[in-house]
Design a protein that fits this description.
The structure is a homotetramer.
Chain A lengths: L1 E5 L3 H12 L3 E5 L7 H5 L3 E2 L3 H5 L4 E4 L4 H8 L5 H4 L5 E4 L5 H14 L2 E4 L2 E2 L2 H5 L3 E6 L2 H14 E8 L2 H32 L3 H10 L5 H12 L9 H17 L5 H15 L10 H8 L5
Parallel strand pairs in A: 1-2, 1-4, 2-3, 4-5, 5-6, 8-9
Antiparallel strand pairs in A: 7-8
Helix pairs in contact in A: 6-9, 9-10, 9-11, 9-12, 9-14, 10-11, 12-13
Keywords (chains A, B, C, D): NAD, Oxidoreductase
Protein name (chains A, B, C, D): 3-hydroxyisobutyrate dehydrogenase
């Protein structure tokens, strides 16, 4: 297939490599061209704008930072929609708002093209290894059309619905549940510590019994080792996804009391100087509340 | 070893069988004797009181309903302590309060005997199969003394500290984190459903990615299939454990905002007629809050 | 003074009458002209657009529904700013977002005119009687310039700062604290009722002791008499103001745990069919949670 | 009437003076006799134990620290019940648990005497001035019997029910609502401060409009002036009353989400060194959460 890819951050670069490896033709665009060099060396082409990139592609994949970036590369005079063929499909992999996905879906419908929302679970190392999990939603014909691309970048593809915004919400729920794991572990670790039980010991018990999932292993380690000080996924991004899930839930009239508690943690983290830390740093606030020094 | 066991509920019976299978001598006591019949047929002996049972044993294991029951079988004129040899060890497997464990530890110390708090993770089927996870705390010498018993009933033994109440707290934290999974999944499933994504599909995505642990599989299924209507672990017991973890946390001055949210759910569940349901029924309150019919 | 007034809802009409009574020249604009008839009979003039209305006025007062309405009547080709003299002042009395007030303040500064944000406390009967409380913020010179108008509509004027958005936030905090009174009284009344104490009796004790303020009298009565079923201030408007205070607080990195609890109430109220009730209807959710029939 | 009074703390002393002033015969008991000196000088008699004090009285009033103290002076060999005449009435003015009041009511019923639960609203200065508010519950005949005493100590008497525990709950709800005012003002003041509005200015607006009640005036001042550092009503006592209202609410299956939030504040306050401050010090935690220095 002829594939365009916009957004060469740490996730996008890994995805791009796997598209090339799967034998597809690839054209890339990024705000700064330097990031593209290794891909161009492997045979990718460069385009000077989203619009120029989109022309002639079967599929255009976007992996950009947030709602604003996705809107900017999709709409407007130089946006991908202006260049996209009517029978082509836009694969949006960013974690963005339900509302934006719904509005882009409408724009594609008017244009005659398709939108598949396909947010991913996994960090940059998984992207590089082609081991992402992909949750896709869109018209079945559109998903079928880009299935080879989705399969090239992920180890597993979940088809969650025929409206693109459904995948956006599933992704937001996933991130919401990760934030719940972080908060729960933070509270539990603080109690363990004040009881004289090493938090590492608590994590060993948890992950050695019925909590034996990567989400507990990864975040249990970040919390107990202080690893949260280095931003794998920065706290403001966690705060943003929390905001997005609360907005989506409000649009559907669904109260999320746990998300509200987590929201207060993120806002406090921003106020107390944790903007440069990982989102798991909210666990340090539970320690602080318990009178433990950070 | 010569082992006594008090409490033949669904957990205790399974544990008793595995002690017998491991070749230990076993004497049992229960409020109603009928439950003991199959064990007596396999060679267990019967005692008419905790005190009578305790006499001459190397270890006495208790698996009873709650604080009141544990206090009743341990202390008082007919309690096990009155009959226990000074070098014997009491293994307490019930999920009870930190405060009670601390006070029983002191009583044993005065008596010259030992207390190992060894609460377990797992349901009756795991108890029957000897596949429980055991989190034990107590003086290392005491744990060593009863290690064969602990290993007979569990697939894995975690030694979490040298003060018995530490294991009590670890168990309470474990149940607290399960309640957080239930609440989080309940909220997430309600949002998925109102977005038009089947909750089963959401669970498939979650457990197929980084949430692939038994706790998500078990409770995800109870929540999405309505299985919560049958009390595997009844809601009032969940409410009790929530109360105990909040009490332990208060004793150590540790705020647990998530436990507070869950507390309000349990209290509401009791008010709204869910006392006969599984503790995972609190997930149905998140659906109700979203205007979905239950 | 020559005064223009945009927005003849139940609040705006009362305000307009008091401006006329104070002897000012008044021109009005409203989406539907019928509302203006009584005022025109008393000597007010009519303008066909916000822009036409603004021309030649010393002050233009807006009292419209929300952010969208305020933006629409202020900016754009037919907006009041297009017609406003450079030395005139815009008095904005609506409860709107901090962000919009800040952006309108900047627009006025570019235009050479002034903005005084002057939200009010009080219901339509207070507006009709000229008994509103006015919290104003803006440059002191601008406030001085429109003081006669502010004093004509209110019984008391509070000057809270020199940046217009400060009054917007003070008003949002006021509404937030009212929502806290509603939630607290709802919880307390539910507990009283289940204890066998009539909620009216509870309110009598509260307002007869240290809670003797209008906010407890008004909302205590709405809650205990079922008066919340009639929308004095409709629940969606309460939900909107809750959203605005959370947004303002997030912009300043201030967690508001109470506002988060109230948020969940409003979202649930929307889901459970209370959109047509008064915002104090969230108190009925506390009753429902306690298993009391509504 | 012949009246006994147990408990000469800052509240009890004021109450005792007013009983004397009203012309009743008064006998007092306190753990340390020094506190009684001024009263004895005014004509009060001294008794060496609650039991001795109770003998021959028409009414015995208790004003002691907490559940333990009330239980100790009421029950047991030297308790007041042992000395009380069958037709006499015990007036309990302490803020204690619903459960204890219910159990003392039963003990009095068995004894043939009466119990009137009559907790008060007001601080020591109000007690000294006879300006307390009294919320009483008990059998109407019992209340009538001690009405002269209740009227001697308070400016207003509210009769809230015929079961003594009802007054206990009303008092706990009152303290719960005060704690809600503190938390709400703490959050609002933090937001005002970060917006550049002086918290004092916010309080002026609030108490000058619909929040014009003593509870806002008193706590608004404590919060904005740092007065919360001096314990008028110490934080651990606030934490205790919060615990009692949550227990009463749990006994009646009433969730209290606001009380849960406040609970987390008190626990955190205990952990972070605020045990020596006023209970309004929890407002300083809202400031801290917003990144403001305390």
């Amino acid at each position: 297939m002829k594939v365009g890819l916009i957004g060469l951050g740490s996730m996008g670069v890994g995805i791009a490599h796997n598209i090339l490896r799967a034998g597809h033709s690839l054209t890339v665009f990024n705000r700064s061209k330097e990031k593209a060099a290794p891909l161009l060396a492997e045979g990718a082409a460069w385009a000077d704008s989203p619009r120029a990139l989109a022309a002639g592609q079967d599929a255009v994949l976007t992996m950009v930072a947030d709602d604003n970036a996705l809107q900017a590369v999709t709409l407007g005079e130089d946006g991908l929609l202006a260049g996209l063929a009517q029978n082509a499909v836009h694969i949006s992999m960013s974690t963005v708002s339900q509302a934006l996905v719904a509005s882009l879906a409408a724009a594609h419908a008017r244009h005659g093209s398709g939108l598949v929302s396909a947010p991913v679970f996994g960090r940059p190392d998984a992207a590089a290894a082609g081991k992402l999990f992909v949750a896709a939603a869109g018209k079945p014909a559109h998903i079928d059309q880009v299935r080879p691309v989705l399969e090239a970048v992920g180890q597993k593809l979940f088809e969650v619905g025929d409206q693109p915004e459904q995948a956006a919400v599933v992704k937001l729920i996933g991130n919401f549940l990760i934030s719940c794991v972080i908060e729960g572990l933070g509270e539990g670790a603080a109690l363990a510590e004040k009881t004289g039980v090493a938090p590492e010991k608590l994590m060993e018990v948890l992950t050695g019994t019925i909590f034996g999932a990567p989400v507990y292993q990864i975040y249990g380690k970040l919390i107990t080792t202080g690893g949260y000080k280095n931003p794998g996924f920065a706290l403001p991004l966690g705060a943003k996804d929390n905001r997005l899930v609360l907005q989506a839930a409000e649009a559907h009239n669904v109260p999320l009391p746990f998300a509200s508690v987590v929201r207060d943690r993120f806002v406090r983290g921003m106020a107390q100087g944790l903007a440069g830390a990982d989102w798991s740093a909210i666990a340090s606030l539970a320690r602080e509340d318990a009178g433990l020094n950070n």
